[in-house]
Structures
1.
Amino acid sequence: MVKKSLCGLTAEEIYNLISPSGFNLSHAVSITNSIYKKRREEISGFAKIPQKLRDELESFSFSGIFQPAAYEISADKTVKYLFRTDTGKEYETVCIPDAKRNTICVSTQSGCRMGCRFCATARYGFRGNLTAGEIINQVISLPDAEKITHVVFMGMGEPMDNIENVLKACEILTAEWGLALSPRNVTVSTVGLTSGVETFLRSSLCNLTLSLGSPFAEERKSVVPAEFHYPVYTIIEMMKRYPREKKRRFSLAYVMINAWNDSDSHLEELKILVGSSGIRVNLLPYHPVTNDPNTSSSSERMQYFKHNLIVSGISASVRKSRGSDISAACGLLAAGLK
Ligand code: SF4
C-alpha cells in the first residue's frame, strides 16, 4: 500500500480518514496542529492524540514533512533552498529575512510551461505540478519556520496553472487549524490565466499580484506569451470589478528593464491601465538571465516612475533586490538546475 502524506490535508480531510474508527474532529485538529504548527516529522511525536490513533495513522500515512536537499546563503542573508521529491522533482524556495518580516517565496511547480522570455525557470522547462503538501512543506520544514510572517507564491511555476493545489495550500496557510497566517500576509503571483484568476478571486481572501512585463499588449506578447490567450486588460478589469474584502491587496509587479519598458510612454500607459482601480504598482529591478544583454533600469529611473505614479494617485513602491548573488532573485530560480 502506498502511504498517504498528511501534510497537505485539511482538518476535514483528516477527520474523514479517522472518523470511521471513532475519532472526532478535535483529534483531527490535534493532528493538523502537530504537522503545521509543531512541524513534527514523525507520527510518534504527534501530541494530544491517543496511542491507538498514532498506530492507525502509521498504518496508512506519514507526516509528509521532509528537509531541503541543499541550501545557499546570500551576502544579504537571503537563503535559497533546493527541494527534491522521491519522484525526482526539483524546485527552489527562498527565505528573505528582513527587520520587520520574514518572507518565504514558495514554488508551485517544478519548472514552468508559461515560457516567459526573461525567466530562468522558463528555460528549465516544465517537470510537474507540486502537491499542496509539497508547497506547504517549503514553509514548515525550514529552520526558523515559526518566525515566518509572510508567504509569497512567486517561486518556480505559474500558480494559476496548478490552482487546486495552490488554493488548498492557501487554505492551510490561513486556517486556524493550519499555520494561522493572515490572508493579508499571503500573496499569490500570476501572469494572468483567466479561469485560474477567477477561481482564486472567488475562493480565497489572499492577495493577488499580476506580473505585467509591459503595459502594451503587443510588446507584452513578446515577453509573456500568456498575453496571446489571456489579455492583461481582461485580468485587470476582473481585479477592478472584484470587491475588496478585509484589506485584501491587488498589485501589479513591473520589472523595469533599461531602455525597454521604462520610457515615458510606458509610464503613461501604466497610469491608464491602473487608473483609479486602487491596484498598487510594485516596481522591481531586472536580473538578467545568462547571455541576456539587457540590464535593469537605474534606481533614479525607478524612483521617477514611482514618483509619477504616486502623483497620479496610484500607490507605488520600489522593491529592493534580494539574493541575486545566489540566483535567488526574481526571475532567476532554476538557473542552477539541470
Ligand atoms: S515568470 Fe513565472 S510564469 Fe513566467 S516562466 Fe517564469 S515562473 Fe513561469
2.
Amino acid sequence: MSAPSLNKTINFPENMRSAHELILMAKNGKKGNHAGQSYALPAFNVTTYDGVQAACEAFETLGSSGVLAFSNSALKHFGHGDAILGLETIHEIVKFRAKKSSVQIATHLDHGDNIGEHGRKVIRGAIEMFTSVMADNSTDHANKCATSLKVNMDATREVVELAHPKGVSVEGELGVLAGVEDEDTHSEISTYTDPIELKDFLTNTGVLLLAPTIGTMHGPNKGKPGDKVKLNIELAHECLKIANEINNEIIFVAHGASTLYPQVVEYAIKNLNTLGLNNDLETWKNFVGTDWDQIKGLIGAGFCKINTDTENRQTYLSALIGAIAQTSSKVDIRYYEKTTYKALVDSYIQKLIMAGNYGVWHEPKINVSEFKFNLNV
Ligand SMILES: [Zn+2]
C-alpha cells in the first residue's frame, strides 16, 4: 500500500504553511502570481529568541517565504534542558510572530529521528506543533552507526503516516553526512546516496523532502583552506531525474551547505587583534565554507531547501567580538544585543538575496541590488 500523501487542506495558524508548500513554490519559481526561475529557501537554524526575531525581520524586510528550523539540541536549549518544553515555547512564539507577519512561515524540526526513545517523543510532539519535520533515520545516533536501508525506510514511513494526514511535511535522509552539526549530529564518515536505493526509499516512504548526500559537510570546517569540499552535482542531477519520475513535487534538501562570509572572518580577526586575543586567530583563519557557486549548481538540481547555520553563528560571534573591542565596560545587555541582532538580520537578508527568495509575498522594503552586508559600519 502506498504511503499517505500530504494533506494540503489543513489550515495551520495564521500565516503559517508547511515547509513543503513554501519550498514547492520555490522549485516552481512562484512569487505572488508570477512563475519564473526556481529559487531556494535557506532554512535558518535558530537557537535563540533573538535568532527567531532576527530571521522574521529579515523575511519581513524582503517579503520572503520563511523556514525556521530547530534541532533537538536547540529545543533543549529553549526549554532549559527539556526539548518538549522548548517545542511548546517555540510553537507559541512563532505562532504569535507569524500572526503579525506579512509573509508565510514554516516551522521545521531539524534532524529529528524515529529511532531512539527521546527522538520518537520529540518528533511526535513536533508533528502536533510544527508544520514540518525531518525524520533522519539514516544514522543511529545513540549507537553511532549507519542504519540499514530497511530500518531507515520503515522508521521514516511511520513518521509519514503520522504527519502527512495532519498536513505536516516530512524530510528524510539517505546516506550519511560527515562533519559536526551539534551534539546530536556528528559523523566521521560520509557515504554518497545510491540512486537505486533512492528510488526504493522515495517510493516506499512517500516523503516529499529528501536530503541525499552528495558531498556537503556539516560544521565550520568543510575541507581544508585551499582544499574545499567538492559537491557531486552530476549525482545530484541523476537523483533529481529519479525523483521527478516518481513525483515532481519531491524536493531535495542541502545539509551542511553553509557558505562563509569572508568579511565576517576579516572583521573577527581585526577585532581579536585589537583585543590581543591571539589564541583563536588560527581557528578563525581555518574556517572553510562551501562555495556559493556550488550551492547555486545544486538549486538547479532541485535542491530548493538550503540549510543555513554556521555562517550566521559566525556572524553573531564576530559582531559580539567587535562590540566588545569597541567598549567592554557598557553594563547594559541591550548595547551588545543590539549589535549582534542587527548583524544576524543582515546575515539572514544576505542569504535570502543569494538564494533568490525575496519579493514572494510583497515587494522588498529595501533595494535588493544595493544591499551590502558588512559588519564594519
Ligand atoms: Zn543537517
3.
Amino acid sequence: MSVARKILIVDDEEDIVNLTEKFLQLENYETLTCSSGSEALQIVEEKHEDIALVLLDIMMPNLNGYEVLKSIKSNEKFNHILVVLFTVKNFFKDIKKGKELGADGYLVKAISGNEIVNYIENLLKKKKKETN
Ligand SMILES: [Mg+2]
C-alpha cells in the first residue's frame, strides 16, 4: 500500500486555496482542494486512504471547520487523518476549542508559504515516527 501523501485544502476563499496549493505542489505534495465543509467531508469519505492531512479553514458558511473536524475525528474510518486548522482566528479560545475537538495542529494565515510547508512536513514526520 502506498503511503498517503495527499493534502486536502479546504477554504471558502479561492485565493487562499490557490496560493496554498501552489506552495505545497512546489514541494511535491499532491493536493486536493474544495471550498466548503460539505465538499470536504465528501472527499474525505471517498478518498480517506490517500489523504494524509487536511488543512482546514474554520470560518466557512454552512458547515464550519470545527464541525468538519468533529466529523473527521469522530469516525474510526478517518480519524487517522491529521487535521490542521487554518485560520485568521488565533485567539486562545479557538485554539483550545480546536484541540478539544481533536485538531492535530493550528496554523495562522499570516504565515508564509515556506512556513506552511515546513509545518506540514514536520507534523507528517512526527506522525510517521509514532506509527512506525
Ligand atoms: Mg473562511
4.
Amino acid sequence: MFKLRGSFLLSLLLLTACTEETISKEPIQEEKDDNIVVTNDGKITFEIKNKVGVPQEKVEAIKDEIVTAYDHIKDSIHTSYTPSEHISVWLKEDGQSWGLASKIELAGVKEDLYPLVHEMTHSLLGYGNNFDTDNGYFTQEGFASYMEYQYGKNKLYFDKYMKQYMESDKLIPISRLIDQNQDDVYFRPKLSNVKENQVLMEVSYTHAASFVIYLIDTYGLEKFEQIYDKKELAKKLEEVYGKNSSELEKDWLAFIQNQQGFTYEEKLKWGFYDMNTILLQIDPTYFAKD
Ligand SMILES: [Zn+2]
C-alpha cells in the first residue's frame, strides 16, 4: 500500500484456446479491448479500469509501463508466491493505492504520480500469507518503495527525508517497525488527527524504504531475497547479515548522517515545513528509543 504524498512530500481477456488457424479464418471475432495488456512472457493479463476517464493515450502509456515494470520485478528477487493470472488495475482520483492479489488500485493518476511499480511489486511478489500482515510490513513496503524509486515515477528522496527526521529527533527504532506486536501502530496508524496519521505512516514507510535501500546497496539483492516477507525478521536479519538489527541500524544511520539533506528551496517547494510542524505534534513516545 502506498499513500500518495500530498503537497508536503511530495475483459477479461478471452484467453480462448484458439489456434492461428481459427484466428486467420475469423479475424472479426477477435476480442479487442483497448484496456488490456498481456506481459511479454504471456503469463499475466492486466486489465485497466479507467474509472477516472483519462484519455486513451494515458491508458496506452500505463499499459507500456505495466509491461516494463513486470519485467523489472521478475528480474529482481524471487519468491514462492505465484501471482494471479488476471490483475485489474483501477485508476482512482485520490485516496490510497493498493496492490492486492488480483486487484491494483492506483491513486494520483491525474497528477502523474501513481505508484504503479510499488503496487505491482506487492501483487507480483506476494505479501504475507494471502495479502495479509502475517509477515509484517517492513521488507515488503521497503522493497516496493525501492522498486518504485528505481523504475517508477514516484521517486522520493528517502535518505533526505531520513536526514530531516534525524535532525528533528524523530527517528523510529527499527526494532519497533519489525516487531509484529508494534508494527500496525506505525504502518496502519489510527491517530484521531488525520494529518498526524498520514505523517506517521509516511515516516514509517520512509524508514522501511531507506533501510531496505541501504541493505540492498550495501549487501546486494541476493541476501535481501532471503529476508523478504519472512516471519521473525529480527532473527532473519542476524542470520543473513551476521549483524543484529540494532547494529545494522547503527550502520545505516551513520550513512544517513553523511547524506545531504534538503536545501532550503527544496524544503519550501515540497512543503517540508508543514510536514515538520505536524511531525512535531505527534506523540513523542512513537519515536522514543527502546
Ligand atoms: Zn505498499
